Amino acid sequence: MIDDPLSVITLVPLFMGLALIVLPRFLPKSSAEGLMRVSRNISMGIALAVAAITTLLFLGEWGSIDWTDITQGGYVLQNEAVNLIPSIGVTWKVGADALSFPMIWLTAILIPISMLVEWDAKRGHLFFPLLLIMEGALLGVFVALDLFVFYVFWEMTLIPMFLLILLWGGEDRRYAAMKFFIYTFAASVIMLIGNLVMYFHTDPISGLGSLTGHHFDLVAMTAQENLIPSEGLRHLVWLMLLIGFATKMPSVPVHTWLPDAHVQAPTAGSMLLAGVMLKMGAYGFLRVAVTIFPESTIEFIPLLITLGMASLVYGAWVCMGQTNLKRMVAYSSVSHMGLIFLGIATMQPLGIAGALFMMFAHGIISPLLFAVAGAFKHHYHTLEIGSMRGIAHHSPWLAAHMMLGWMASLGLPLLAGFVAEVAILIAFWMTYGWLVLLPALTLIITAVYYLSSMQRTIFESNDPDKGILPDTMHDEEPRDITWHENAGMLLLGAMTALFGIMPFIFWDMMSDWSSGFTVETLIDAMHSQEWKP
Amino acid sequence: MIEASWIAGLGVILFSIGLLGAFTRKNAIVVLMCIEVMLNAANLNFVAGASHYSDVDGWVFTAIAIAIAAAEVAIGLAILLSLYSTQETISLEEANLLRN
Amino acid sequence: MGDSKNEWELLVPLVPFLLVAPSLKFLAGWESVEAAFLIVVVPLLTFPAILVVGQIYNGNETWKQRYKEGGIFGLGALSLSLSIAIWIIYDYVVGSAHFEAHSVVDPFSWLTFDVIEQTGTQWEVSTGFADIGVGVWIDSVTLMLLFVATFLCFLICWFSLGYMNTDKINEDSNHRFYGEFVLFAIGMFGMVLADNFLWLFIFWEIMGLCSYLLIGFYYWKDSAAYAAKKAFLTTRVGDVFLVVGLLMLYDIYGSLDFAVLFDNPSTGVGGAVVESGELNWALIMLFIGAVGKSAQFPLHVWLPDAMEGPTPVSALIHAATMVNAGLYLVVRMVPFVDVHVNGVAGLEEFALTVAWIGGITAFMAAAIAFVQNDIKKVLAYSTMSQLAYIFTGLGAGLLFLNIDEHHAGYFVIGASMFHLFNHAMAKGMLFMASGSVIHEVHHAHDHVRELSEKYSTNEGDDHGDFDPQDMRNMGGLAARMPVTATAMMLGSMSIIGIPLIGGFWSKEGIIAETWAACLHEEPLMLVPAVLVLATAGMTGFYMTRMWLMTFAGPPKSEVVGHVHETTPWIKEPLIILSVITALGGFALALLGASDYLGDPHHAELSYHGLLDTLEHAFLPEDSYLRLVGWTTMLLAMVIGPVIASRIHGGRLIDGVEASPLVSWLVDLSSRFGSQDVSELADSQLAEALQRRLYFDDLYEVALAKTAIPFAAFSAWFDANVIDGVIKQIESNSATGSVQIRRITTGSARDYILMAAVGMISIFALLWGVSN
C-alpha cells in the first residue's frame, strides 16, 4: 500500500494535469473532439481515484485512524520530511489533522462533481487538466506543514483559476481575471512578508537551514514558545497575515474581487472558488495566525468581530440589492464567511467548531448554488433575476435544486448550514450577550433575498402552463437541465441533507479539535492577556 | 618633470569636455568623437599613474584601453551606418523611435 | 356514485402499512414507545419516493387512477403513523404498565461539544453543559397533539384524494402536493414527539418550509407566490427570536432537554439559581416565535393570504396543525412558571403579555371576519380568533401558576388544551366542508358555462369573474349538499360554543377562568377578559352569518341549481368529524380531559360525573362568574346568531327541501324578521375592516420605504465606494505609469545625460561614505 497517501493525492493530479496539457505536442494530429474526450476522461478518472483514496482515509481503513483521537499539535499521515531546499530550510512535510482533513475530503469530492457538471460543456482539451492542477494545488495548501511549501501552493492555486476565468469566462472576463489575480496576489505578498519575519525568528534545527540558520517547518514553529518576543512586531506580523487571509476569505472591506470573479467565471471555476478556495483563507488563518500567535488574536478580537459583523450584515444587505443571480450568490458567500470570524471570536470550543463546520457546510452548499446559477446561464442565457418568470414550468428539476440550495443556504434545519449557524450563535450569546441579535436578525434578510429571487425567477408567471422567458432566448425552446448537471446537483444536494441530518460525521472530529485547541492554546493566552468578553 | 597631477588634471578637463559634448551635440559622429575624447582622457589618467608610480601595469591598461576604444568605435560607426539607412540623417534628435 | 366500490379497492395498498403496528406489538413484542420513531421515519422515507416516482411517471394513467399520483402511498404512510399513535395512546391512557407522566426513550447524542467558562480568573472546561441529543418525549399534552396531528393528517389526505385529484388544474402536479404534504406531516409529528427544544425548533422550521411550498402550490399565480413568501418571511421573523430564546435557555440551563429543564427549572447550570429577569426574556423570545407561527398580532398578516393554497392545505396547516405549534410551545413553558413544583417566581409580566396578545387578536380577528365575503377568509380569521382564545387561556393559566394558584392554573391550562383539540377537529372539518362547497360550486359553474355555450349563440356572460369561494354566489345550498351542510352546522356550533357540542366544554372554562383571574388576582387581566367576552358574541354572529349566507335563504346565483354533492372521498372525513364534534367533546369532558391535560404530574383520566361537569359550566359558585358564564352564553348563542339571522337568514325557496338535520336551523333563521345593513356595509368602519385594519398595508409600505431602498443603496455603495477605492487605485496606477513613462523620451542624448548623472552620483556617494 502507499506509504504516503497525502503526497500522492497532492502530486499526482498536479503532474498528470501538466502532462495532459503538454500531451498534444507529442501526439499525432488527432481531432479536437477526440483529444478533449481523452483528456476529460483521464482527468475524471484521476479525480475519482483521489476522491476514493480520501474517503478510504476518512473511513479509517487506511492505517486505522481515529480522527477524534489526535492530540493537539499532532498530525496523522505525516510523512518523513524530505529536504527540498536544505540550505534555506525548506522541507516537503505533509500531514493532516482534524482541522485540515474535512477540507481535504471536501476538495477531493468537489473536483469530480464540478467536472461532472461541466461534462458536456465543450470546453476544449485544456479545461479538465486545469481543474486537475487546481486540485493538486488546493490539496497542497491543506496538507502542507512547511510554511514555504504552503505559500507556494497558495499562490499556485491562483494560476489555474486565472486561466479558467480568462479563457472560458463571460464578457468581462479580462477585467475580472486581472482584478482577481492582482488583488489576491498583492494581499498574499503582504502575507509573505509576515511569513518571512516568522522565518527569521525560528530557532535553528539541525540539518536544516545550513545557509541561514532558520527553517520553514510549521510544526516546529508552533512548538516553539514565543516565536516573536517583541510584542509590537508580533502584532504587526499577525496583522500582515490577517490581510492576506482576510482578502482570500473574503472579508469586507477587501471582498470586491469576488463578485466580479464569480460572475465571469465558468461554472466549475465558480464552484471551486466558492467551495474550496475561500476556505483556504479561513484555514490558513486558523493554522498559521491563530495557532502561532494566540495572544495577538485575543488582542485583536474587537477587530475580528467588526470584520465578521461587517461581512455578515453588510454582505446581506448588498446581496438584497442585486439583480444578477451569480452576484447575489457571491455576496451571500461573503456574508456566510463573516460568520467564521464571529465563531472564532467567541473563544469557545463550540463557536470554533461551529466555524469549522460552517467552512465545511458552506463548501457543499455554495457549489450547489453556483451550479444552479451556471445552469441558468447555460439554458436561459441570462442571469438577470428580473428577466424571467415561472421557469419552474419548463425546468422543474432546476427549480427543485434551486429551492433546495437556497433553503440550505438560509439555514433551514436538517440541511448542512443549520448546525453551524446555531453553534456559532449559541457560543456568541454566551460570550457577547445581546450582540447576537445582529447576526440573528440578518437571518431574516437572508431569507428575504433568497425568497424574492425565487419568486421572480421560478414562480409567478400567471399562466398555468408556461413561464415568461427572457429576451435572450430568442425563440429557442426552453429545456430542463441535462443529466450530468442534474447528477452533480443531486450529489451536492444529497450531501447537504446527509450532513444536515447527521452532522456528527465530521462534527465530532471538529469539536474534538476545537476543544483541544481552546484548552491547550487559547486558554493560556486568555490567562496571560487577562481577557474578559 | 611634469607632475602626474597636472596630467591627471588635463585628463579631467578633457573628460568634462568630452562628457559635455556627448550629451549636447546632435551629430552622432561628433558624439562618437566625444566618447573617444573621454576614453583618451581616461588613458591620460592611466599614463599619469604609470609615470608617477613607475609601474608598467599602467602602460598595460593604456594599451588595452586603446584597443577597446578602437573596437568600440568600429561598432559605433556600424550602428551609425544602420541608423542612417533608416532615417536618412545622423541627427540624434530624430532617433526617438523608443520614445515612451 | 358507482365508483364507491372502486374507492375501497384503491385502498388495498394501505393494508401492509396498517399491519405494521400490530405485527410489531404481537409478533416482535415491541413496546409502543419504541415504535414511536417510526411515526416520523416512515413518512420520511415515503415523501422522496412520491416526488421522484411522481416525476418519472408523470402523465401515466395508472399512476393517476390507481395511485392517485402518490396519494395512496401518502395515505398509507399516514395510516401507519396513525395506527402507531393510537397504539401509544392506548398504552398510556388505558394500559397500566406505563403509568408515568412522561416517558423518555434514551436520547442518542447528536452534537457533542465542550464549553469553557470562567471561574474567578481561570478559564476551564465546564461540566455543566450537556450535549444535544435526539429522543422521544411523551406526556399527556404529547398524546393529545399526536392524536390530533396523525388523525387529521390522515383524514385530510383522504379528503385530498377526492378534492385535488378531481380538479383539472392539478393534473400531473399532485405528486408534488402529496410529497410536500407528507413532508409537512413529518414536521408536525417530529415536533410533537421531540424531547428537546432544539429538535422542536428543527421540525418547526420544516413545517414552515412546507407551509411555504404548499401555499405557493399554484406557483404561477402572482398572489400565491406572494402569499407564500409573506408567510415564510413573517414566521421567519418570529423564528429568529425563537432561536435567540433557545440560545438564552441553553446558557441558563446548560441543556435544552425537556427532561432536564422541566425537572427543576429554578436551578440552572452548575446549581446556580435562575433569575426571573433572564428567564423572562428567554420566554418572551420564545413567545414571539409562537406569535409568528400561530398568526397572532402583530405577526398575523400572513394567515389570511395563506388561503391562496388549496383547501386541504388550509385545513391541515392553517387550522389544525401548524398553527397549533405556537400553542404547543407556550404549553411547554408551563413548568417554568409553575411555582408549586420548582418553577421560577416573578414571571407575571410574561403571563400578562400572553393574555393581552391573545385578547387583542381575538377581538381584532373577529371584527375583520364580520365583513369577509370569501368563505375561506372567514374561517381563517376565525382560526386566528380561536387560537387567540387559547393563548388568553394559557396566559391566565401561566398567571395562576406563577402566583401559586395551581388548581385554577392547571384547570385553565387543561381547558385551553382541550379547546385546542376541539378547535382542531372542528376547524379541520369546517375547512374541508368549505372545500367541498367550493369544489361543487366550481363544478356547477363549469357545467353552467358548458350548457350556455351549447345552447346560445352569443358569447354569454363574462365567466372569468366568477369566484367559487365568494359567499355572495351561494345561498340555499342546504338542499343540494346535505352532508356538507350538517358538517358545517356542527362545526360552527362547536366554534361558537353551543352547550353540549364540542367547543362549549372548553371555551367556558377559558372565559370563566380569565374573569376569575381578573376579578380575584390581577386587575390588568380586565382587558383580555372583556375582549374575550365580546368576542364570544362576535363569534356567534360571524359563524352564523357564514352558514346562513351559504346554505340558507334563496340562491343568489343561478349556479346553485346545478350543484351536486358527488365527489368521492370527500364525504367520509366530514361524517367522521361531524360525529366527533357532536359527541367527542362531551365524552372527553366526561372523562375529565381538562384535568388530564392540565396537570402533567398527576395525569389520570377519571370519570367525572356528568352532573359535576355541567354544574361547573352552568352554575359555578362565584356569583360574578355565574354572571359571566350566562352572559357569554347569551351573547354567543342568542344575540350573535339572531342578528345574523335577521340579516342573512331565510327559508329555502319553494320546491327544495333540506335534510331534517339542518332544516330546523334554516326555518329558525327566518323567524327573526329581516334587516337591511347596506348602509353599514358601506361605512368607513367596514372599509377599514376590509383592508384588515391597514396592518398589511403598514408593513408593506414600511418595507418598501426602508428595506428596499437601503438594499439598493448598499449595492450602490459597494460597487462605487468600496470597489471605488479599488477602481481608483487602478486608474491612479494607470495614470501614474503614463506619467513615469514620459522619462523615456527615446532620445539618445537624454539617456547619456541620465547615465552620466547617475554615475556621478554613485561616485559622489561612495566618496562620501568612504569618508
**Quantity of strands of chain A, as a count:** 2
Biggest β-sheet strands, sense, barrel of chain A:
2 strands, antiparallel
> How much helicity do the residues of chain C have?
55-70%
What strand line-up does the widest sheet of chain A have?
A: 1-2
Uncertain residue ranges of chain A: none
- Please state the overall shape of chain C, judged from the principal axes of the Cα atoms: globular
Provide the β-strand percentage band of chain A.
Answer: under 5%
Radius of gyration from the alpha-carbon trace of chain A, in angstroms: 23 Å
SSE string of chain A, helices as H and strands as E: HHEEHHHHHHHHHHHHHHHHHH
> What is the strand arrangement across the widest sheet of chain C?
1-4
Describe the overall structure.
The complex is a heterotrimer of chains A (533), B (100) and C (771). With 533 residues, chain A is mainly α. Chain A has helices spanning 5-26, 32-58, 101-117, 127-143, 147-156, 158-168, 173-200, 218-223, 231-248, 257-264, 267-292, 294-299, 301-320, 325-345, 349-380, 396-409, 417-432, 437-457, 483-501, 504-529, and strands spanning 82-85, 90-92. Chain A has a two-stranded antiparallel ribbon. Chain A is globular and about 70 Å long. Chain B is mainly α. In chain B, 77% of the residues lie in helices and 0% in strands. Chain C is globular, with a radius of gyration of 32 Å. Chain C is mainly alpha-helical. In chain C, 68% of the residues lie in helices and 3% in strands. In chain C, strands 1-4 form a two-stranded antiparallel sheet. In chain C, strands 2-3 form a two-stranded antiparallel ribbon. Chain C is built from 30 helices and four strands. In chain C, helix 13 (311-320) packs antiparallel against helix 18 (406-455) and helix 20 (504-521) runs antiparallel to helix 21. In chain C, strand 2 (116-119) and strand 3 form a beta hairpin. The chains are: A mainly alpha (533), B mainly alpha (100), C mainly alpha (771).
Note the topology:
The complex is a heterotrimer of chains A (533), B (100) and C (771).
Chain A: H1 5-26, H2 32-58, E1 82-85, E2 90-92, H3 101-117, H4 127-143, H5 147-156, H6 158-168, H7 173-200, H8 218-223, H9 231-248, H10 257-264, H11 267-292, H12 294-299, H13 301-320, H14 325-345, H15 349-380, H16 396-409, H17 417-432, H18 437-457, H19 483-501, H20 504-529
Chain B: H1 4-22, H2 28-53, H3 56-87
Helix pairs in contact in B: 1-2, 2-3
Chain C: H1 4-10, H2 14-27, H3 36-56, H4 61-65, H5 71-93, E1 103-111, E2 116-119, E3 122-125, E4 132-138, H6 140-163, H7 174-193, H8 197-215, H9 222-253, H10 258-263, H11 276-293, H12 302-305, H13 311-320, H14 322-331, H15 334-337, H16 348-369, H17 375-402, H18 406-455, H19 482-496, H20 504-521, H21 526-551, H22 571-590, H23 593-598, H24 610-618, H25 623-648, H26 660-669, H27 678-681, H28 684-690, H29 695-741, H30 748-770
Helix pairs in contact in C: 2-5, 3-5, 3-7, 5-6, 5-7, 6-7, 6-13, 6-18, 7-8, 8-9, 9-11, 11-14, 13-18, 14-17, 16-17, 16-21, 17-18, 17-20, 17-21, 18-19, 18-20, 18-22, 19-21, 19-22, 20-21, 20-25, 21-25
